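ok, trying the design again with the full structure, not the truncated one.
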């Protein structure tokens, strides 16, 4: 016996079943969870600036504040927060929902470029990323080898692995931990510095002036 024939032969039973289904639906609807403020991811841009050797007060006054004053003129900003720690300034710019992320990133880069001349000359250039500073990493990869040293592994991770991963859509930032780069360490002789009337600051200034990359030809 099919459901349709049973409903035709016993209309009262069919009516009771229909009312019961509707009643359970009304009761279930009253228990549905409602959110007045649904989870929405607004566009977030982060500006990081490193200044090795500077304390948090210097970072705040010489890096964070000039950048904040420049960024405040961007339209569509919802909130602007900053953190100044020893050697690093982090500014997080959150835009209103619906703002185009690429356009917002370009506006931030333009303002940062204008404010860069106000920053200390020996501070690292600000880095603008399209991600929240507090965002957690989704994937961690390990590069290891029994035949290559740490310098060789760093070159592979930077020039091959990182460049290929950056081409994947949806990836905001890739960081490399434990890398080792080529560096030259200069040991100063205090007696000779005193004899020539020089200070360590003079040596650093001379190195910065001579450390130039000029085009050939």
């Amino acid at each position: 016996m099919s459901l349709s024939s049973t409903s035709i032969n016993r209309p009262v039973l069919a009516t009771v079943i229909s009312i019961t289904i509707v009643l359970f639906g009304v009761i279930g609807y009253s228990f549905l969870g409602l959110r007045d403020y649904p989870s929405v991811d607004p566009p977030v841009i982060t500006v990081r600036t490193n200044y090795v050797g500077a304390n948090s007060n210097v970072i705040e006054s010489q890096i964070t504040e000039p950048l904040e004053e420049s960024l405040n003129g961007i339209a569509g900003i919802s909130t602007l927060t900053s953190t100044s720690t020893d050697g690093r300034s982090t500014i997080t710019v959150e835009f209103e929902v619906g703002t185009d992320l690429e356009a917002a990133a370009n506006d931030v880069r333009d303002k940062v470029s204008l404010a860069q001349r106000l920053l200390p000359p020996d501070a690292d250039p600000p880095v603008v990323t399209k991600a929240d500073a507090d965002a957690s990493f989704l994937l961690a990869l390990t590069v290891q080898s029994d035949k290559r040293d740490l310098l060789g592994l760093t070159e592979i991770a930077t020039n091959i692995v990182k460049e290929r991963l950056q081409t994947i859509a949806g990836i905001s930032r890739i960081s490399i931990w434990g890398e080792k780069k080529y560096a030259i360490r200069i040991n100063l002789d205090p007696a000779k510095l005193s004899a020539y009337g020089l200070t360590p600051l003079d040596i650093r200034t001379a190195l910065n002036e001579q450390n130039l990359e000029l085009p050939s030809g």
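Keeping the full-length input from now on. The CA atoms of residues 91 and 187 lie 36 Å apart.
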